[in-house]
What does this fold into?
Amino acid sequence: MSLVSYEEALASYDPVMGLEVHVELGTKTKMFCGCSTELGAEPNSQTCPTCLGLPGSLPVVNAVGVESAIRIGLALNCEIAEWCRFARKNYFYPDMPKNFQTSQYDEPIAFNGYLDVQLEDGEVFRVEIERAHMEEDTGKSTHIGGATGRIHGAEYSLLDYNRAGIPLIEIVTKPIEGAGHRAPEVAKAYVAELRELIKALGVSEARMDKGQMRCDVNLSLRPNGTEKFGTRSETKNVNSLRSVERAARFEIMRHATVLTDGGTIIQETRHFHEEDGSTTSGRIKDNAEDYRYFPEPDLVPVAPAREWVEELRAGLPELPRVRRARLQAEWGLNDQDMQSVLNAGAVESISETIAAGAPADQARKWWMGELARRANETGTELSEQPITPAQVARVCALVAEGKLNDKLARQVIEGVLAGEGEPDQVVEKRGLAVVSDDSALGAAVDQAIADNPDVAAKIRDGKVQAVGALVGAVMKATRGQADAAKVKDLILEKLA
Amino acid sequence: MPGITREEVAHLARLSRLELQAEELDHFAEQLDVIIGAVARVSEVAGQDVPPTSHPLPLSNVMRADEVRQSLTPEQALSGAPASEDQRFRVPQILGED
It folds into this structure.
């Protein structure tokens, strides 16, 4: 199927989006039982009668799970329910051994909020939040047999329930309208901002690559100038910021192609494919009533006291937008430079490098220069580069101490990135220290003068600009490890 | 009587991933009718002064500290499973999803 272009799609249709983000909380234990949530444990070693859904077991809610949900709600400018219940979402699928997921239905703990997100050109877009509710994660299936390890053609499946019952907060936006051609960018910026917020709250590491934060992108089109929403598709488990943007973009083009052709959009879930940014049809969505939600009789209602809510509100950390404004002022950046730092995803790295002792301009120089280039080339996130802010700060310190010049510092960074160890180890292994030993340098200078008598004569005659050739010779002899300015001074001194 | 239809039973069967024969659809429609009728009688008794409730006890905010408690061993966890493999629960082919 060939798709209409993005521009053509937008010429006729207006996209409406809804984003559902699941955040796995970083609590020590599961939402309704005391099993550990530690990642990487042996299969089925972190289960108990409650999370296995065995008869007679009783769930009890995790206080930190509730507290985290309230804090997320408050940070999203939500109202916090005075009284709410859990509900059973019934479905028949082996990833939940109970045959239902404990969730919240019509009584979410937090509702009616918003999150302001900043787009790449600095424009601020307000995304309204419908609700944030508490629920639990499912187990992990492995499909055996069949060619691709996928469910189709599999002969049977194996289930590990270690993840079943890990607390999730699902954050649902209201329909995002009016973003027009910027809809995919808004989607990405929203998830990015939400991730920052979650990290600032300390309730989860929110690593998308580890599945700690996952996004479902709901999207529909309506003809430009009309009000009524079209039929939506729901692209599940989109697991990186870039993919969120690509998935929204692809669905806009796909919907437009179907609609332009006189077809109808089917309400279904879709799977996103990283390789080519496309989506393919999943299952036809059950209706909400098919889940036969009903209040969970095994759990009592949650009625957070207003004093507790206010206490949590007062204890919220500085939120990302406020913090960014503060850092911009502290780092002395204009709006444009700050925006580049934000677009490069460099705020944390720079901030931590400064915290590790580097001057602001140096920290920014490395992360926005050498390291940003590398991230770009390899198509990875800046924060994922195999170098820590502390290591960058150490390189800055070595430069400040005069032990490295700029060129050598670059090589040390390269060495650290190549896995050669800490900056000091790279300096030692590669023999990169600036030659500051005056006698060694003096010998190199004498040699250069002896090797280039003509040039030396010119300089003695007052043609000082000829010194460059001798400095070059010394730098070459010291393999770039001398301080060029110092070399120049030494030569001029000797030939004065 | 509420009148559960064969179609409704078929729909429920699909959601429950149950394969039912034609005569079973009729049979279960009748049975479900009886059950729903019995539950409906409760609503007749409940007056305006009895609020709907999801829990028999007037409790709220029963919470647990976030402290790890001992889990079952994988052997114990799997002991009731009809089939297991690689320390995981083995389930038959999953249809109608993905």
